[in-house]
């Protein structure tokens, strides 16, 4: 079995030998039709478009993407050709939770004092959105959930229309997959109509996919203060993102909400186990992320400790300093661990 692996997928070298000896690592830009032609399996990230152009005439049978999102896979084409694909559901949901948690702490510091009693609208309540709903309780936020698919399928799901979130929420955060078809497409869910309906000058947070929000609408409504601030991790047209929007936002990061080492290790592990399952290899792989050099955090309170563990202002500063480094900042991302990797020592 020949496996072609995106060479930016970490913690994979030692484990993949348990599946095959025939492994080729390539940068995403070198996943071309001629290079994938004789591979049986691809392990990819969002930067590799798995479509007819790439796959036609190849012997690829299985694609594992070490990501939650799978909008880079042409699922219809794969179905037609009998190519099986698997994403890594929930792999980095805790990492996005960490990103939002630190962002909430910064919103308290810079804007609100406290989030207690404010209303948070969550659009998309899956692996990530559910964790954000739990997190919101810790901050004393009231939560309005929006997920029409869950509403259709679960009779007890407490669904609120997007328009209700627009009218009632102080902060609205997006956690939907990017979809352009179906009953509830998410492409430009945040459009002129949505922004016009806002009543409370909310903060808008997007860590889902850039195309879920119409960039020009968001900029327009930031300019006239209908949106009071934005925290944006994902952008239309990455890596060639909108400079004006980056300048306007409170935090603008290079699509790294899911980039904790914990999330990355889980994604790699899930991808390898998906291949093992597909080929019935009976191999169960476990991958641990690296230990940080210093695991003890001393702080005056828990929120300060959480910001010491991960402060998104650093990622935002790095991107704002040089927008052209968007992809470089992603591919050279430092070791970021989630709070569970540390012991926190509160010293008043
Ligand atoms: N920025 C990052 O680094 C990062 C990391 C992880 C995931 N993501 C993105 O976040 C998305 C969500 O992740 P997840 O793990 O929670 O996915 P998920 O599939 O577990 O949950 C998505 C939820 O969105 C709901 N949904 C679909 N269409 C909707 C619509 N029109 N309106 C409201 N809700 C809708 C679904 O019913 C589902 O419950 C991923 O698809 C991915 O694109 C980004
Ligand atoms: O969908 C996901 O899991 C995230 O967006 C993920 O962090 C994307 O990472 P990439 O594949 O672009 O490195």
Short overview:
With 348 residues, this protein is α/β, with parallel strands linked by helices. The chain has 15 helices and 13 strands.
Mean pLDDT: 98
**Using DSSP, what is the number of strands?**
13
> What kind of oligomer do you see?
single chain
Number of domains: 3
So what's the overall shape?
Answer: globular
CATH architecture of the largest domain: 3-Layer(aba) Sandwich
Catalytic activity: 4-phospho-D-erythronate + NAD(+) = (R)-3-hydroxy-2-oxo-4-phosphooxybutanoate + NADH + H(+)
Domain D-isomer specific 2-hydroxyacid dehydrogenase NAD-binding: 111-257
Domain Erythronate-4-phosphate dehydrogenase dimerisation: 303-346
EC number: 1.1.1.290
Would you write up a description of this structure?
With 348 residues, the protein is of the alpha/beta class. It has 3 domains: 105 residues, Rossmann fold, CATH 3.40.50.720; 155 residues, 3-Layer(aba) Sandwich (Rossmann fold); 51 residues, no CATH class. The chain contains 15 helices and 13 strands. It has a 6-stranded parallel beta sheet, with helices on both faces. Strands 2-1-3-4-5 form a 5-stranded parallel beta sheet, with helices on both faces. The protein has a two-stranded parallel ribbon with strand order 12-13. Helix 5 runs parallel beside helix 6. The chain starts with a strand and ends with a strand. The mean pLDDT is 98. 4-phospho-D-erythronate binds next to loops. This is Erythronate-4-phosphate dehydrogenase. Belongs to the D-isomer specific 2-hydroxyacid dehydrogenase family. PdxB subfamily. It catalyses: 4-phospho-D-erythronate + NAD(+) = (R)-3-hydroxy-2-oxo-4-phosphooxybutanoate + NADH + H(+).
